[in-house]
From TrEMBL:
Any single biological process term in GO: protein transport
Protein location: Cytoplasm, Cytosol; Late endosome membrane
Keywords: Coiled coil, Cytoplasm, Endosome, Membrane, Protein transport, Transport
Family annotation (Gene3D superfamilies): 6.10.250.1710, ESAT-6-like
Membrane topology: Peripheral membrane protein
GO cellular component: cytoplasmic side of plasma membrane; cytosol; ESCRT III complex; late endosome membrane; multivesicular body
Region (Disordered): 1-25, 186-205
The name this protein goes by in its record: CHM4C protein
Pfam families to which the protein is assigned, alphabetical: Snf7
Family: Belongs to the SNF7 family.
Keyword Transport in annotation: yes
Bias type Polar residues, positions: 190-205
């Protein structure tokens, strides 16, 4: 077993006895701090690599020893830079896994809270009472529908009267009004003077004039009255 393993086993177990393990938030904060530190170390190494390249170019073949030493240092810095890249990848993977685990833990915790709340809500609920309640609601809805249908139907006021009898009575009233209008009609009076005779052309004109002149108003009055009575009979027959 390596010394590093012994250190973590021994020191870690001893430290865990003194306090509880870190929370996910604390571990994530430590990992972010480590990533920031390694990123700064990367920038430093990249700067040193550029500087050693400049030194090697400066000496070149004039001072091969100094140029070679600069290139060796550059190689060491590049190796450290590669190691830091691998370390950052590992830390990034661990941080993402820890974040996902923390997220899942929070989700499960909240789901547990929700389950407990639902359980608490359902403690005072009885399925039989719920069925009875739903049945009562259905019955009340049916009653409300019946009331609505009864209100919306046409009221039956006046349905006990026979429409045929009402129409017959209406026709009688119209006939009475018509007869009353006929009685109020005033016929023109018979003129008291004799009508002028129309002369006949030719040889019979004198005879026709004498015939018409012989008819007196007394003789025309009964004839006019008879014609008026005939007209009234015709009007009464048409009205009935």
């Amino acid at each position: 077993m390596s010394k590093i393993s012994k250190f973590f086993k021994g020191g870690g177990s001893a430290a865990s006895k003194g306090r509880r393990g870190p929370s996910p938030q604390e571990a994530l904060a430590r990992l972010r701090e480590t990533e920031e530190m390694l990123s700064k170390k990367q920038e430093y190494l990249e700067t040193r690599i550029e500087r050693e390249l400049a030194v090697a170019r400066q000496h070149g073949t004039k001072n091969k020893r100094a140029a070679l030493q600069a290139l060796k240092r550059k190689k060491r810095y590049e190796k450290q830079l590669n190691q830091i890249d691998g370390t950052l990848s590992t830390i990034e993977f661990q941080r993402e896994a820890l974040e996902n685990s923390h997220t899942n833990t929070e989700v499960l915790k909240n789901m547990g809270y929700a389950a407990q709340a639902m359980k608490k809500v359902h403690e005072n609920m009885d399925l039989n009472k719920i069925d009875d309640l739903m049945q009562d609601i259905t019955e009340q809805q049916d009653v409300a529908q019946e009331i609505s249908d009864a209100i919306s139907n046409r009221a039956g006021f006046g349905d006990e009267f026979d429409e045929d009898e009402l129409m017959a009575e209406l026709e009688e009233l119209e006939q009475e009004e018509l007869n009353k209008g006929m009685r109020d009609v005033r016929l023109p009076s018979v003129p008291s003077t004799s009508l002028p005779s129309r002369p006949v052309m030719g040889q019979n004109s004198h005879t026709s004039y004498e015939l018409h002149s012989c008819i007196t108003p007394v003789q025309l009055a009964p004839q006019k009255r008879a014609e008026d009575e005939d007209e009234m009979k015709k009007l009464a027959a048409w009205a009935s």
